[in-house]
Design brief:
The complex is a heterodimer of chains A (221) and B (463).
Chain A (H helix, E strand, L loop, with lengths): L1 E5 L3 H13 L3 E5 L2 H10 L4 E5 L7 H10 L6 E5 L4 H9 L4 E4 L4 H16 L5 E4 L2 E4 L4 E4 L2 E2 L4 H12 L4 E2 L1 H8 L10 H12 L5 E6 L3 E6 L1
Parallel strand pairs in A: 1-2, 1-3, 3-4, 4-5
Antiparallel strand pairs in A: 6-7, 7-8, 8-9, 10-12, 11-12
Chain B lengths: L1 H49 L1 E3 L5 E3 L3 H8 L6 E7 L4 E4 L16 E8 L2 E11 L5 E10 L1 H49 L18 H48 L3 H31 L10 E4 H18 L3 E6 L5 E4 L1 H19 L5 E7 L5 E6 L30 H11 L3 E6 L6 E6 L12
Parallel strand pairs in B: 9-11
Antiparallel strand pairs in B: 1-2, 3-4, 3-7, 5-6, 6-7, 8-10, 11-12, 12-14, 13-14
Classes of the chains: A alpha/beta (221), B alpha+beta (463).
């Protein structure tokens, strides 16, 4: 994938470019507003990582010119300023995501993956967690290749938990994936689903943890 | 400007006083002058009357010698008219153009003064009744004069009255103008002294040369200066403390970098790099905390951006974000209490930051692996957020000081700069909320409280 990195701090630009090249991307780097504008007019990129505080004219201006040319390339804005006002301004101008300095490279890489996936219009259709594989398209789950016998609703709950593995999903969010919002469902119903899922996924290498008052979390065991 | 203002207020009232005073003085002198001229007029009428004889048939007749008539009728300024009329109104002598008095003269009131006209000219007339020996009306003597000398007198009265008054008004204006200027001179001195001051010079202004009326203002100003100086030196201490706090992880960074640069192979570099990662995280966290403090500063006044939000949703979302960190540390982080909505007026991202610091504090110093941290939310009678841990607790003598900037309990676990709870206190304060710490009910662990003020819109019916 071809990525343009617009960053005038050379140490940071070097760090980003090296990490992205190591991940197999083709990276071009520029360090000023006009250079970024020229690079974006000359070549086609799949992603732009754009700093706001730039020499000559700033990243907001680069973004404005890019969107004026009707170029839809995803833009990830980097900035040292994290005021809500700046964030809204950037998103209004057509930025796709926002990252505040300093950040960790892992965070940047995750954001890039999400942006590109969104731009290509496809979500992951397969989630692998330990011995568990969730086939989102086929609506089936496998443990070491063997299909797990799940009802449609059990699969829906597992799908949400797996997609957000390692993070807490609230009971309400899980219920709303299983039932219509206008149906009056007791929150306890989720305990039944989770209980059944735990049983069926006993040797899948994952566990569903109950987080007091907050929801459930799928984790590798 | 003060002078113009004073003049505008003073001059109209001075003018009104002067006009009213002039009016009454004028009326008084006019009355007195009229009385004097009228008396002279009456004397002339009576002198004329003495020359009249009441003859047969009770008809008056005038036998006035030529010389006497000239004396009587001579006046240097005015034209003189006279008329002697019989009881039936017929003219016996004099000018019959001179009108009779408007009312009949009687025995009780034999004299009358009145204004009338002769040949189109205004005159002042004095009528004097004549009686027979039998006290019967015999006729009337009228003596009149034009108004020339009376008008002269009037003009002189006006000039002598009004001119000094005008002079007085002018002097009052000048007095105000220059009086205010000299009265304000100490203020001007004060202003130029302040203008010449260096911006770092926050000493109080000397009050000995300041007029008493202005002293309270100057003293308040001096009070403000003292407070500004206190705030400024607090800022200065904060800045240098912050820089010192940054030095430590930077020194670590630098040391680990040198170690990595000297290393020969990856196995030797790796531990240094892990340490570098840790140091860089500490710097990042510290800088973020410093920025939060700067934005939550009382002077920044976040209340302009206050909006209503559901505190229960915010608390639960924030707790969910922290669960992975808590699990990694082996801590059981949970939420209990009001599931919401609990409506609060405030700054959502600041309140999130406050809770972040409370949970971070509990995970860092409060709870060890296998212990629990519980975040609670109550909404009645007012929103109250608590974060409870099962750790060592906070000694009584530290319970206030831990909320101060850069204060750390000595001997506590490493890593923090002592800013987290200061951020909690400052954000709580900007929301009118109280923040404090208590020991847990069973004496084990600490409970951090943040009590919000009662909310007007609490528990809005959910749609």
């Amino acid at each position: 994938m071809r990525i343009l990195v617009v960053e005038d701090d050379l140490i940071l630009a070097d760090g980003i470019a090296n990490a992205l090249r190591a991940a197999g991307h083709a990276v071009d780097g520029v360090a000023s507003g006009p250079d970024a504008d020229a690079a974006l007019a000359a070549a086609e990129y799949e992603l732009v990582i754009l700093d706001i505080e730039l020499p000559k004219f700033d990243g907001f201006e680069v973004l404005r010119r890019l969107r004026r040319r009707k170029v839809a390339t995803p833009v990830l804005v980097l900035t040292a300023r994290d005021s809500v006002h700046d964030r809204i301004h950037g998103l209004d101008l057509g930025a796709d995501d926002y990252l505040t300095k300093p950040f960790e490279m892992g965070e940047l890489e995750a954001r890039i993956r999400a942006l590109v996936r969104r731009a290509r219009g496809a979500a992951d259709d397969r989630i692998d967690l330990g011995r568990l594989a969730v086939d989102v398209k086929g609506r089936r789950a496998y443990v070491e290749g063997r299909a797990v016998d799940l009802s449609a609703r059990e699969f829906a709950v597992l799908e949400v938990l797996a997609a957000r593995a390692g993070r807490v999903v609230s009971k309400e969010a899980l219920i709303s994936t299983v039932y219509q919002w206008d149906r009056d469902v007791s929150p306890n119903v989720m305990e039944i689903f989770v209980h059944r899922l735990r049983k069926k996924l006993q040797d899948a290498g994952v566990g569903i943890r109950t987080i007091r008052g907050l929801g459930y979390l799928l984790e590798r065991t | 400007m003060l002078r113009t203002q004073l003049l505008w207020r003073l001059l109209p009232s001075v003018m009104v006083v002067i006009l009213v005073a002039s009016f009454f003085a004028y009326r008084l002198s006019l009355d007195m002058a009229t009385d004097a001229y009228d008396a002279a007029l009456f004397d002339s009428a009576r002198s004329l009357a003495q020359q009249i004889e009441i003859g047969g048939g009770d008809r008056p007749s005038l036998a006035l010698p030529r010389a006497a008539e000239e004396i009587l009728l001579f006046d240097p300024h005015d034209r003189i008219y006279y008329r002697v009329a019989a009881a039936d109104g017929s003219t016996v002598a004099g000018d019959e153009r001179l009108p009779m008095p408007p009312t009949r003269l009687t025995g009780e009131l034999p004299v009358r003064f009145y204004d009338t006209h002769v040949g189109g000219e205004r005159v002042r007339a004095s009528a004097y009744a004549l009686f027979t020996r039998g006290e019967q009306p015999a006729g009337t003597v009228i003596f009149a004069e034009t108004l020339v000398k009376r008008r002269h007198l009037l003009e002189r009265i006006l000039v002598t009255l009004v001119l000094p008054l005008l002079v007085i008004t002018l002097m009052a204006a000048l007095l105000v103008w220059y009086g205010v200027r000299s009265g304000l001179a100490p203020l001007n001195d004060l202003a130029s002294a302040l203008a010449r001051r260096d911006s770092s010079d926050l000493r109080p202004v000397p009050t000995d040369r300041v007029p008493g009326e202005v002293r309270p203002a100057v003293e308040s100003f001096n009070n403000l200066m003292t407070r500004v100086e206190a705030a400024q030196s607090a800022q200065q201490r904060f800045l240098s403390e912050a820089a010192h706090q940054l030095r430590t992880p930077l020194a670590g960074l630098s040391a680990q970098l040198d170690r990595a640069l000297r290393a020969q192979d990856y196995e030797a570099i790796k531990p240094a790099l892990d340490q570098l990662r840790g140091a860089s995280r500490r710097v990042t966290r510290l800088v973020n905390q410093l920025l939060t403090i700067a934005r939550a500063e009382p002077g920044a006044d976040p209340s302009r951006e206050f909006a209503e939000f559901d505190l229960a949703a915010l608390v639960q979302a924030t707790c969910r974000e922290w669960v992975p960190d808590a699990l990694a540390a082996g801590v059981d982080l949970g939420f209990a209490g009001d599931p919401g909505p609990v409506w609060v007026l405030g700054h959502e991202s600041f309140v999130t930051e406050m809770l972040n610091n409370l949970i971070d504090n509990a995970l860092r110093y409060g709870a060890r692996a296998g212990q629990a941290v519980t975040v609670r939310l109550a909404s009645d009678p007012q929103p109250e957020l608590t974060v409870e841990d099962e750790g060592p607790g906070v000694p009584p003598e530290e319970r206030t000081r831990i909320f101060e900037r850069f204060h750390r309990i000595s001997g506590s676990a490493a890593g923090g700069a002592g800013l987290g709870l200061a951020i909690v206190r400052e954000i709580a304060r900007s929301h009118g909320a109280q923040a404090w710490v208590e020991p847990a009910a069973d004496g084990r662990g600490a409970v951090f409280h943040v009590r919000f003020p009662p909310q007007k819109m609490n528990r809005r019916p959910s749609v």
